[in-house]
Design goal:
Blueprint: H1 2-35, H2 40-46, H3 49-67, H4 73-82, H5 89-94, H6 97-128, H7 136-143, H8 163-168, H9 171-189, H10 192-197, H11 199-206, H12 209-219, E1 226-228, H13 230-235, H14 238-246, E2 259-261, H15 266-289, E3 292-300, E4 304-311, E5 321-325, E6 335-338, E7 348-353, H16 357-365, E8 383-388, E9 400-406, H17 411-426, E10 434-441, H18 448-463, E11 470-476, H19 481-489, E12 506-507, H20 512-522, E13 527-533, H21 536-549, E14 558-563
Parallel strand pairs: 9-10, 9-13, 10-11, 11-12, 13-14
Antiparallel strand pairs: 1-2, 3-4, 4-7, 5-6, 5-8
Length: 566
């Protein structure tokens, strides 16, 4: 537990700070509306649900201000690359941008629920206070506005109506309904099961956020919740005049109170982040206009497409990713893909596996599975946005790095291993002295291109006199009787029968506890960066191993977990 706290202390502090700001805003706003004199008459009608509605509204505005910041990819990449303060643990926080995005989304859902329920109660109380059975101060306040020189406090003017009609005939009601429906669509389509089943559905539905923010900015324009004006408070002191006013004394020296709606403020909260996000989309549109030249198309087994591309002023680092669009397939959709080329190469490449509607259409358009190669001129146009930073770009900043890939998650590490090749050739001194690479896959035929890369890297490291710089372990999780017969017939003491590498392929899954124990033993006083790309279930296991095998002693070994997420 102590090691987990040491590794995650900054994340914990930031999460607690976010919770603390939410609590402060909620409590401070709640008590302000419970005690503020200008809303005393409003509280006579609504009670404490006024404070609940307004407090949750402020928290809702605060979280809506934050929700767009974690998805401004260019801003985050800029901070990763240029800000001196974004180093070490602070830089790892930038890599958790999507986790923070989801955390803020939970805050929006909670506060929106409180706000909706509170205002539904308020609407019912406004309606009930117009009943003929209601008397005293409540009746007097609800009837205000029926004659000249009076301003109303109760937005529902007659009891002979229903709350549904009032809801659908006011700016606040209509925009509130739109906000609620948009939020439900965004949240439900963001679940992991829907994202995996149909990424396109998630992508399109998520962009309802545009309607969400427009409605949010307009929501307060109706000024439904009203309070006494500051000028009226000087003439009609509620503490002195309340009892007299309740009795409706004609000779009372207290003038009629005047009411007005509170100025809408939601747009002030979200204006800055919306402008930043708009700049993000402008940059994407500008990059969309830039020409992308496709220099090579390769088709690998099991539906894997490899694309080599060139673009003017395109600069990348190992482990970064791009957003790819094919207008011939969809004029709106952008999909993230890890770059598999090294910065030293005169092109950039991606490997794409057909696992969804969009990727299947892309692979088909580029002739995956066709025997006859297509002419490059006849290929559909591609647009590229990026590159953007990922945790893997920090692999060179540790003395020891552990790279763990599952299935197609191996693609981010292709660029890293290629960069190791080129940097070893240049003889430049590296802080990185040891790389452990683990690859768990079901069918190695699907990733023959990566096995070829490992083979060339293995040969190159031996020639450079660094055979122990890279330690790699390949695990095959699914194999049948035919493969077992093939392995037996082609057994070789020096090379693996499946991959052709010197390192033998293991069968089954790694014993992570044993692997981490060995790494901790080999590097007793080191900071070890662990980088993973693959399924969430394995991610939780690896994160647990990092915490379990990190030393409580600051001078001992420490594993720092980084997961690819984009």
């Amino acid at each position: 537990m102590r090691c987990w706290v040491l590794n995650e202390v900054l994340s914990i502090i930031l999460a607690l700070l976010w919770v603390g700001v939410n609590l402060y805003l909620f409590i401070d706003t709640y008590y302000w509306y419970e005690e503020e004199e200008s809303f005393l008459y409003t509280r006579v009608i609504l009670g404490s649900t006024l404070a609940w509605a307004r407090a949750s509204a402020v928290c809702l505005n605060f979280n809506c201000m934050l929700i767009l910041l974690p998805v401004t990819r260019n801003l985050i990449s800029f901070m990763r690359g240029t800000c001196v303060c974004c180093r070490g643990p602070w830089r790892r926080q930038l890599d958790k941008n999507l986790k923070f995005h989801r955390l803020v989304a939970y805050g929006i859902v909670i506060n929106a629920t409180i706000h909706i329920v509170a205002h539904l109660y308020n609407l019912e109380r406004y309606h009930a206070s117009q009943s003929a059975e209601v008397g005293g101060l409540l009746a007097v306040l609800s009837k205000l506005g029926d004659t000249r020189n009076e301003t109303y406090l109760n937005p529902i003017r007659t009891f002979h109506t229903n709350t549904t009609t009032e809801l659908l005939t006011t700016i606040a009601g209509v925009t509130g309904l739109v906000i609620t429906l948009a939020l439900i669509l965004i949240v439900t389509s963001s679940t992991e099961s829907i994202r995996q089943a149909s990424y396109e559905l998630f992508w399109y539905t998520h962009h309802v956020f545009i309607i969400f923010f427009i409605s949010l900015a307009l929501h307060g324009a109706g000024r439904i919740v009203r309070g006494q004006t500051s000028e009226s408070l000087l003439l009609h002191n509620v503490t002195r005049c309340r009892e007299r006013y309740a009795e409706w004394q004609a000779a009372s020296p207290c003038p009629l109170p005047q009411f007005a709606g509170k100025e809408p403020s939601a747009w002030k909260w979200v204006f800055g982040p919306v402008v930043l996000y708009a700049c993000e989309r402008i940059i994407r549109f500008w990059r969309f206009q830039q020409e992308v030249v496709i220099t090579k198309v390769l088709s690998h087994p099991c539906g894997v497409l490899e694309l080599h591309m060139k673009k003017h002023n395109f600069h990348m680092e190992p482990g970064q990713y791009i957003l790819l669009q094919c207008p011939a397939i969809s004029a709106l959709e952008w999909h993230p893909f890890t770059l598999t080329s090294a910065p030293h190469e005169d092109f950039f490449s991606v490997h794409i596996r057909a696992v969804g509607d969009w990727t299947e259409a892309l692979c088909k358009a580029f002739g995956v599975g066709n025997q006859a190669p297509q002419e490059l001129r006849s290929l559909p146009r591609l647009a590229v946005d990026g590159p953007f930073g990922t945790p893997l770009t920090d692999a060179f900043h540790y003395p020891v790095s552990v790279c763990i890939a599952a299935g197609i998650g191996v693609t981010p590490f292709a660029a890293l291993l290629k960069s190791l090749w080129y940097q070893c050739e240049s003889q430049n001194p590296l802080k990185l002295s040891k790389v452990y690479f683990y690859w768990i896959c079901r069918d190695p035929k699907a990733f023959e291109w990566f096995a070829d890369l490992l083979l060339s890297l293995e040969t190159h490291m031996s020639e450079q006199g660094k055979p122990y710089f890279l330690s790699y372990h390949i695990f095959l999780t699914e194999w049948d009787e035919n493969q077992a017969i093939y392995i037996a017939l082609h057994w070789d003491e020096t090379t693996d029968a499946i991959t052709g590498l010197k390192q033998k392929t293991s069968y089954g899954r790694p014993n992570w506890n044993k692997e981490f124990q060995q790494m901790a033993y080999n590097h007793p006083s080191s900071s070890i960066g662990v980088f993973f790309c693959g399924p969430k279930s394995l991610s939780k296991t690896l994160q647990k191993m990092c915490h379990l095998h990190s030393s409580a002693d600051p001078r001992g070994v420490h594993f720092y977990y980084n997961q690819e997420s984009f």
